[in-house]
Amino acid sequence: MSNALDDSETETTGRTASQTTTTTAGESDERVREAWTDYDFAGTPKLSVEDLNVWYGDDHALKDVSMDIPENSVTALVGPSGCGKSTYLRCLNRMNDRIKAARIDGSVELEGTEIYDPNANLVELRKRIGMVFQSPNPFPKSIRENISYGPRKHGNIEKGLLARLFGRDDTEAEYELVERSLKQAALWDEVEDRLDDNALGLSGGQQQRLCIARCLAVDPEVILMDEPASALDPIATSKIEDLVEELSKEYTVVIVTHNMQQAARISDQTAVFLTGGELVEYDDTDKIFENPESQRVEDYITGKFG
Ligand SMILES: Nc1ncnc2c1ncn2[C@@H]1O[C@H](COP(=O)(O)OP(=O)(O)OP(=O)(O)O)[C@@H](O)[C@H]1O
Ligand SMILES: [Mg+2]
């Protein structure tokens, strides 16, 4: 790639008019500078991503992404459709392992431990790093069972004949966990009288909060959310937004959103991906929205393309 400016020059000069030629389609010869994505924050990162690349067959969907994610905060991932946000998010708990065509190269560390280690325990990993998807996907079971399924699978709650035989029936612990998780997800008041009803009878917004409660029930450290409010009405959306802000006091939240106002409202830092699977800029949310370094990022967040 050719560009007359080198990194040291950009550090002091910032963006210059001659640096880019942007079109309305967002095409540009702008070159991403390391300083734009080298986000400086206090404390140690919860997740540390280094030179992450993803290919689907020959399609290079994510290119050399390096990004440290601070704990107990909300990190928003934004960018136009197809730029690799979901791909990136799925890399953070190895969900892409399930996609046959995907090839992943690079490193993701959770508190300094490589999650792509061939000996990594994927069940344990996905317990520590939970995920909430775009469309609510409750199990076709009761509200209560949706919450207790994970903890039972992980052996935190024992139920059934065998457990009873050994005097280890944890029904009370289960009820407490169900109540705590539903309260955390701001759903308890709406469902406390119908815990044994099928979860598919809930509204979309309620189902999404149930999925968040289900994710919280296994006591994760990181919660990945892929456009969790995109299918919801404004009231349900604002409930999810309040919830995300509340959760970030105790959890590390990484959230994909197409809604710029939402990213500005709820996130502490924002990462902007642009076409071609490139992380272009990553910084405090205020900085990204008020004074981005990249012309393409400015054009994108002000709605000139995307
Ligand atoms: N399972 C898959 N198999 C093949 N290609 C895929 C697969 N998933 C994603 N891709 C391709 O990878 C690129 C990035 O897709 P991704 O879903 O990560 O984008 P995105 O930023 O989440 O888009 P959107 O905002 O529309 O959800 C796209 O070109 C897409 O076609
Ligand atoms: Mg996506």
Helix/strand layout:
Layout: H1 7-13, H2 34-37, E1 45-56, E2 59-70, E3 74-78, H3 85-91, E4 102-110, E5 113-114, H4 122-128, E6 129-132, H5 143-153, H6 161-165, H7 171-184, H8 188-191, H9 204-217, E7 222-226, H10 234-247, E8 252-256, H11 260-266, E9 269-274, E10 278-284, H12 285-290, H13 295-301
Parallel strand pairs: 3-8, 3-9, 6-7, 7-8
Antiparallel strand pairs: 1-2, 1-4, 4-5, 9-10
Radius of gyration: 21 Å
Principal-axes geometry comes out as globular
Low-pLDDT segments: 1-24
Bound compounds: adenosine-5'-triphosphate, magnesium ion
The main pleated sheet reads as: 6 strands, mixed
User: What is the name of the CATH superfamily of the domain at 33-140 and 220-301?
Assistant: P-loop containing nucleotide triphosphate hydrolases
What CATH architecture of the domain at 33-140 and 220-301 would you give? 3-Layer(aba) Sandwich
Strand content: 15-25%
Q: How far apart are the termini?
A: 24 Å
What features would you describe in this structure?
The protein has 306 residues and is of the alpha/beta class. It has a domain at 33-140 and 220-301: 3-Layer(aba) Sandwich (Rossmann fold), CATH 3.40.50. It contains 13 helices and 10 strands. The strands form 2 sheets. The chain has a 6-stranded mixed beta sheet, with helices on both faces. Helix 5 runs parallel beside helix 9 (204-217) and helix 7 packs across helix 9. It starts with 6 loop residues before the first helix and ends in a 5-residue tail after the last helix. Residues 1-24 have low confidence and may be disordered. Magnesium ion binds at residues 85-86, 226, 256. The site of magnesium ion has 4 residues, from helix 3. Residues 1-10 have a biased composition (Acidic residues). Residues 11-26 have a biased composition (Low complexity). This is Phosphate ABC transporter ATP-binding protein PstB.
